[in-house]
Design a protein that fits this description.
With 316 residues, this protein is an alpha/beta fold. The protein is 49% helix and 13% strand. It has twelve helices and eight strands. Helix 8 packs parallel to helix 9 and helix 9 packs across helix 10.
Length: 316
């Protein structure tokens, strides 16, 4: 059992619990907005627009959703408020579909000649190292050999935190201690992973946004050095964002996507916020698939993002 499971009943229950605050916030507002109304008119759409924007879906994404619903209203002539929930779910799923990569978990470990390398980026405090630990656990549960690399060498206790996770999960962690050269750590990690015939490598990186140019240079150097060992590494650059920060997470996504070629997203701390709509907005605005969502503190509380179940959980 692990990260490659089908979406089970237990996972659905966990998802519903984790999104409870977002669901309560959006659904209660929506119910109030359509109370006493029978048709979807301009007033209902204006209310819906406000609900989505204040739920951190984002202005651009909200306008796109509203435009699509308006087109359906115009086409069908008569649209009852009883159908609004279903149509809203359909439009959001369609929006997420456009940026969903069907090969998100499509890499075939059996056919790989080298480890699959995931470089994890994100600012301090978003749950980056914890996400790495949970991913390592789930990959190991799926029967894969995992190696961690502690290349966040500037933050106090970052290396120690990753070592603790490696011991908890039972996987090796390559480190050179504090203030070491991050690229050197990444090089040693890949060298060790290849010698151990590992399946997956997870590289932690420094979470600093002090200067976009410096960030870009640092991440580029790590990538260049890793490519001396595995020419096409990293295969995945996973940006971890804290969903509870709402529009601040959007700004972080803007900074990191400008600094490096992010091709997957992880949204954490969804269980502690009513701002779950940010998942929809970020996926749409940056055209990068959301791959994982964090819905609790437990080691199993990191799920592969299932867009249909996510939308259903919020709007059911």
């Amino acid at each position: 059992m692990g990260i490659f499971d089908i979406f089970s009943k237990d996972k659905k229950q966990k998802l519903d619990q984790g999104l409870e605050k977002t669901k309560t916030g959006i659904f209660s507002k929506l119910t109030k907005a359509i109370a006493g109304k029978t048709t979807v008119d301009d007033e209902v759409l204006d209310d819906l627009e406000e609900i989505l924007v204040t739920s951190d879906v984002g202005v651009n994404t909200t306008l796109k959703i509203i435009e699509n619903i308006e087109a359906r209203v115009a086409k069908d002539k008569y649209l009852g408020t009883s159908e609004l929930n279903r149509i809203l779910k359909e439009e959001i799923v369609n929006l997420l579909d456009k940026h969903h990569n069907n090969n998100l978990i499509g890499f075939d470990f059996e056919k790989r000649e080298t480890p699959y390398v995931i470089m994890v980026v994100g600012v301090n405090g978003v749950g980056k190292t914890t996400t790495i630990g949970k991913l390592a656990h789930q990959f190991k549960q799926a029967g894969k050999k995992v190696v961690l690399g502690a290349a966040d060498t500037f933050r106090a206790a970052a290396v120690d935190q990753l070592i603790i996770w490696s011991e908890r999960v039972g996987v090796p962690c390559i480190n050179q201690g504090m203030n070491a050269d991050p690229a050197s750590v990444a090089f040693d990690t890949l060298k060790s992973a290849v010698s151990q015939d590992a399946d997956v490598v997870l590289i932690d990186t420094a979470g600093r946004l002090h200067n976009k140019v410096n960030l870009m240079n640092e991440l580029s150097k790590i990538k260049r050095v890793m490519q001396k060992i595995i020419p096409d590494a990293p295969h995945e650059i996973l940006l971890v964002l804290d969903a509870s920060t709402g529009q601040n997470a959007v700004e972080q996504a803007r900074q990191f996507t400008a600094a490096t070629e992010v091709n997957a997203l992880a949204l954490t701390k969804l269980d502690g916020t009513a701002k779950g709509g940010v998942v929809i907005g970020i996926s749409n605005e940056f055209e990068i698939p959301v791959k994982y969502i964090g819905i609790g503190e437990g080691i199993e509380d990191l799920q592969l993002f299932n867009r249909v179940e996510f939308v259903n959980s919020i709007f059911e």
